[in-house]
Amino acid sequence: MKCKHCGIKIDNPMIFHIHENRCLEDQRANGFIKDNKENDIDYNSMTVEQLKVICKDKGLEGYSNFNKDELIAFMKEKIQL
Ligand SMILES: [Zn+2]
User: Fold this and answer.
1) What is the percent of the chain where pLDDT is above 90?
2) How remote is the CA of residue 1 from the centroid of ligand 1, in Å?
3) Is residue 56 domain-shared with residue 69, that is, in the same domain?
4) C-alpha 34 to ligand 1 mean position (Å)
5) CB 25 within 8 A of CB 6
6) What is the 4 CA–ligand 1 centroid distance (Å)?
7) Which residues neighbour ligand 1 (ion) by CB within 5 Å?
8) Are residues 4 and 29 in the same domain?
9) How far does residue 7's CA lie from ligand 1's centre (Å)?
10) Of 36, 35, 39, 5, which is closest to residue 19 (Cα–Cα)?
11) Which whole number is the average pLDDT over 23-47?
12) Could you say which of 8, 9, 55, 76 is the most buried, measured as most Cβ atoms within 10 Å of its Cβ?
């Protein structure tokens, strides 16, 4: 299992759980995390080009003629955050 906060790999579920909680506290204390919104990517602040790069990265298709609003809706539907 991989810690979603620091990316470290830990195989023992119990140690993983302890690590993850500590890691979360650490990162919060260091200001890396604001609330629980770190996974909430702000698509609105990106350009159409940046959004299309992400779509390409994710292997999505059929978005080439979309405008920004359509792209955002498309991505929210297709990409599980
Ligand atoms: Zn960690």
Assistant:
1) 49
2) 11
3) yes
4) 16
5) no
6) 7
7) 3, 5-6, 8, 23
8) yes
9) 6
10) 5
11) 72
12) 55
What phi and psi values does residue 77 have, to the nearest 5 degrees? -75, -40
39 alpha-carbon distance from chain centroid:
4
Say if residues 13 and 53 touch (Cβ distance below 8 Å).
Answer: no
Q: Do residues 1 and 16 share a domain?
A: yes
Tell how far the Cα of 10 is from the centroid of ligand 1, in angstroms.
Answer: 9
| pTM greater than 0.85 | no
The CA 65 to ligand 1 mean position distance, Å, reads: 40
Number of domains in the chain: 2
